[in-house]
Give the backbone structure.
Amino acid sequence: MELIPLFKKIIQAKSETPDDGGLLDFIVSYLPDFDAVRVDRNGVKNLFIFKKFSEGEHLCFAGHVDVVPAGEGWSVDPYGAVEKDGFIYGRGTQDMKSGVTAFLQAVKEADTFNGTLSLLLTSDEEGPAKDGTLAVLDYLKEQNMMPDSCIVAEPTCEHKFGDAIKIGRRGSINGVIEKEGKQGHAAYPEKAVNPIHKVAQVLHHMAGVNLDEGDENFAPSKFVVTDIRAGMEVTNVTPGKLKMMFNVRNSTNSDQASIEAFVHKYFSEMNYTLKLDQSAYPFMTDPNTKIVRTIDAAIEKVTGIKPKHSTAGGTSDARYIAPCGVDVIEFGVRNDTIHAPNERTTPQEVEKLYAVFKEVIASY
């Protein structure tokens, strides 16, 4: 199958998390010369498919076939793979069925490789992500088949195809502060302890504040307040408790301990509790590693652009792969419409992404 018809077929599979839309079975049939292992867990479908061409290093392409729900506001069928005005529209066109299409076709057409080529695919990246890539990595550890290098084909480009790759990601720490007060009548504030008034006195020292200065690879870790709620939605009762939720996308210069100390600095005289949960840890792949140098050269050869190295943005399943000792980077199409109505990309970007991956396989 040619590249763009393949792309459209993959878009047309309604694979909203954790449904794979039949794509994993299709991929197995599309790569008949590869050895396929299903690592399904708790209703999540996962696939590891590989081919050992010769002795040598193991290069893996990783990603997800699942997409977020289409939602409302589309001008076309979100699963119609409609092509118009120079774009192909559909849920997942950018995140990340373009990437899956590009590396699927690239490995299918690989005649030789100095080592092993593989694909790691899950149907649970957009959801809880606890039974997806992690399940496959557990299997690979057991089988002593962990890759040496990995490319996650998430959409990374910002303004022009080829302008950015991810060599790392910030971590993500979620926090919940509960401040106790004493409920009372609004007409008698002296008889109550209003937690809103207490928190308001310190909030300007915390909301939007950088917790560190960042460094050459990471932006500063910022304390981002995401929700504050208290009271009973009436005007004559002051609340007895306040809950404040926040998120910190942390660099390697901040961690749970430093965030706990930051909160305590301003809440030390208040009766409060703090809960922290780290859903992702920061990581960075050395820019001098083989995979970074190889993909930099491939992008420049295909596009004429030398990509910048970025750690910005949210999280991806690369956060699970890096701690396994794998050199992991991310590269894909532009990300300007991900998760939005009328998500779209161009055929040219998909073709260039495929060409980059072909060049990586040829020159790795």
Notes: Residues 172-280 form a domain with the Alpha-Beta Plaits fold (CATH 3.30.70.360). The two ends are 25 Å apart (CA to CA). The chain is about 25% helix and 25% strand.
